[in-house]
Every structure is written in C-alpha cells, then in structure tokens.
User: Fold this.
Amino acid sequence: MYDFESGDLSLDYANTKDWHGSQKPVEKLTSYTDLVEWGVQAGLVDAELARQLLEGAEDHPQAAFEMYEQAIALREAIYHIFSSLYAGESIPTDDLAMINSFARQAMAHLQLAPRQGGFKWEWLPEMDGIHRILLPVARAAAELLASDRLSRVRECEDDRGCGYLFIDQTKNHSRRWCSMESCGNRAKAHRHYSRLQAG
Assistant:
C-alpha cells in the first residue's frame, strides 16, 4: 500500500501523499488508523503495539485525532522543506521550527547502548506509542538535512506535480523521475511527440 523506495525514512513519510506538488493531491493517510498501519509497514511498530494504539484511539478519539493532525503537519513540513530546497527556494521557517521541535523530542527519547566494538543509539522503552512513528521520522529528516546526502535529494520533475521525493543514487546523479515506468515514461513519450510535431 505504501511506498518505501525513496532511500530515506523521512522521504518515505513525505510520499504518503500522492501528487503532492499538484493542485489535487491524493491523501493516503486519511486517519489515525492509516498512520498506525504506515508505522507497521515501515517497521517502526509491531503488531502488538499497533493493536494497543488503535485500542487507545477508540478510548480517546479526540487525543488520537490531535496526534493525527500533528503527524500530518510534520509530514507537510518535511515535504515543504525538501521540495523548497530542490527548487532553490527559501526554507519555510515554520516548517523548520516544527522539525526542530520534533527532533529535540527525539533526542530526549534516545540513549546510548553498547554494541560490538562500540555504541549505538536506541529508543527509550517508555517512549509513547505514536511517538515511535513520528520521532524516528523527524530524526531521519533532521539527519538527512545535516548530511552530505542532502545534495542528492530530488523531487520528481513531472510537470503535473507528482511531488515524489527521493535520494538520487545513480552514479551520474541523473535521476529525474519517481520512476521510468510512470512519470519518466510519460515525459519520454511527450518528448517524442514534440519531436514528431516539430519535424
């Protein structure tokens, strides 16, 4: 149901709205339940925690709805920032402030744990359930923004506003489309048609 091929968790999350850059985007996360399901598919929560989250949402629907709204706001902030960067536009300050807020929460829920030959970050076991989805996403976005991979973040160049974000992992950094099977194929066919018309 959901796409996890962008190359980064935060971009996968941003891509939960199809045609993000168009006038008529298509929402995939239409409810708190969808958000939890995305977390399951992303490997951030297991089936038992998902069950607990959904039961909690039934008991406290207003709180679940407010958390859902926060989740959507975080997603939009991530999309706006990376889309703006790729377009060479200024970063929306409110969106950066939102990611910073979530990223600070993420750091407060991390601890160092020993592993073979060193240490690793791990999430505190008492971290609230839905934060097991949102905080890793926010942390991934912050780390991507501060990394040398940032220069490889792309947005599908389909002129209809596909909006799909991804990390270009091609050797010559030439990827322009979400995939050649969809937007890339359409662009190729359009160029071919234009050449025929010009000829």
